[in-house]
Amino acid sequence: AQTVTQSQPEMSVQEAETVTLSCTYDTSESNYYLFWYKQPPSRQMILVIRQEAYKQQNATENRFSVNFQKAAKSFSLKISDSQLGDTAMYFCAFTDDFASGSARQLTFGSGTQLTVLP
Amino acid sequence: ETGVTQSPTHLIKTRGQQVTLRCSSQSGHNTVSWYQQALGQGPQFIFQYYREEENGRGNFPPRFSGLQFPNYSSELNVNALELDDSALYLCASSSWDTQYFGPGTRLTVL
Questions:
Q1: How far apart are CA B60 and CA B45, in angstroms?
Q2: pLDDT of A14-33, one tens digit each?
Q3: Hey, are the CB atoms on A106 and B103 less than 8 Å from each other?
Q4: Residues B92, A103: C-beta atoms closer than 8 Å
Q5: Nearest CB to A91; choose among B42, B92, B98
């Protein structure tokens, strides 16, 4: 079974600074997908960024980027120029590659509460 | 493009009752997944529906059941509610590898 571990329950960062959230995972699959979702107090789970394991290039979405280390099974999220609106719970999640007829469930970590300080 | 919607937003039930939660998938998405998120934890997979058939199930008892309709909307039914069923229930729709979530239904069981 796949597992996802987020070892930082809480983090804080000053506005405009850079912060990195850590995530490790365990799987025997060779191809899979990794995600970061954010969940602000409004509870809506919002997709931040997506990485396909067979792509060596790290994904980037505006101020958000990942450092994907497949051999180490590590998938960290870097937030640059942090903004007050980035305050949220961040979840790392994993799903394996599509196989016909099988459920592609997301396995989530326990989350990191990020607070951006003014 | 309409996103994933869920109803109701909040719900209060008593132990032993039954509840139905509803989800409308994003346009073009044929797969719906349901998750339970207890307070302070990550979401846990309940089950997934693909083209009106249950496509996979997590470690939840049979009193958690669901349906998917021809328009790909979905229902989650929970029978014989227990206090531990109090949680945020999230619905997500997808057409391939990425799931997009609705705003959730907060269920409180007294």
A1: 9
A2: 999 999 999 999 998 888 99
A3: no
A4: no
A5: B42
